[in-house]
Write the structure tokens for this entry.
Amino acid sequence: MIDAREATKANSPVMLVGPPGSGKKSIAQWIHRKSSRANQCFITIDASHIPQTRVEQELFGKSLNNQNESTHAHVTPKIQACIGGTLFIENLQCLSTKAQTELLEWIKQNQSASAEKSCRLITSVVADNNILQPNARVGQLRPDLWYAASVYRVNVPGLAQRSQDIPRLCENIVSHICATHHIRVPGITRKAMELLCDYSWPGNIGELHSVLEHAITHTDDRLIGPSDLAHLNKPQTKQSSESPDQDSDIESIEALTKTSLINALEACQGNRRRAAKRLKVSLRTIYNMINRYGLPKKQPVKRPKSPSRS
């Protein structure tokens, strides 16, 4: 979460990239709470759950197919309502082409405004965690909007790739469920926590929330044990049988990404700035990838072999 921490210190647009249910909204809220805008509003709109006409009206106060069709006078467009605060657009790739164009123009205008008269834009995209191109596996998201909205790009992996976060997530989710239902917070045994951490979680945080809610209402002694996690105890379920393939896919993507990075550095004779341009990512991303894959800080330059003399 180094990138997310860095994003709290600036007002530039942030893009959260990850699979469905990986907790992108929670991270957006965390960035807002840790930023200088923490005391201002945090407004959310999900572009995937409501019709495009309504998305356009809520964002811009008008239907982009009919410029004369506006919202009711008492409804303030979200891009105006969040001035001074943070606007979070979920599933950015679901915006219509016209809405993307309108948002791109708004971003350009918003960047030149002062902090008091602008709003912080955070967006989320459902996609793989190893995207090297703005239009790769991101639906119809236009590249120029991708670049404008991803000054800070934070990859949000699924729970299977960050099992170390599960104990903290369990604590937060259990507290929230118990506060909602006005019941006493139960404990979780060590074996139950091990079971939770070892599970592959194909449904990510949504599945974790469902499992914990069932366990809370199922336990009799206010202590969640393995017997309260029957869903996770089933041997050879369809989900568990598919997890090796899922893991191998992740490993294949990682290997492909590492190879692309090495090839780019070699082609650019170790120049990381040129390699970043070649891969169309930021220089910071290149440094992060070098650290992640344990590559040498100074990339050796491979010189072409001289032809052998006969």
Observations:
- The chain is about 45% helix and 10% strand.
- The beta strands are 14-18, 42-46, 62-63, 66-70, 86-90, 120-126, 152-155, 187-188, 223-224.
